[in-house]
Amino acid sequence: MFAHSLACAVLIALLAHRPGGLAGRALGSAVPRRLGELSYGLYLWHWPVYLLLPRPATGSWAWTSAAIGLSLLAAVVSKAAVEDPVRQRARWATGRRGWAALAVTAVTAAGLWAAIPGRSRARGRST
Q1: What is the radius of gyration, based on Cα positions, of the chain?
Q2: Half-sphere exposure (CA, 13 Å, Cβ side) for 118?
Q3: How far, in Å, CA of 121 to CA of 22, rounded?
């Protein structure tokens, strides 16, 4: 944790000292900006993907890559299909259509919650 905090402090110092330097250009490039635009969707989707994606018996780079890829894909789709239209006040996101979209989302979320393996059975037991 100390090394992480120290690295963040060094990065902040570099950015404050020379905003147009190598660190500033690297962090201001297209890839970090796009990931920043997807950060909310990644925050929402990474955990359901982690829980629902069948895991191999041992750790695997292929599984990790698949989980990252699926989380990114879900974030891109939800940004394009939900976040941006709501932000831009699309017709389906307002009025009665907005309530219908909210109901469909709630039912989908409940279905995903029900699909999580062992979610309520494991709670409260010590094994």
Answers
A1: 20
A2: 5
A3: 51
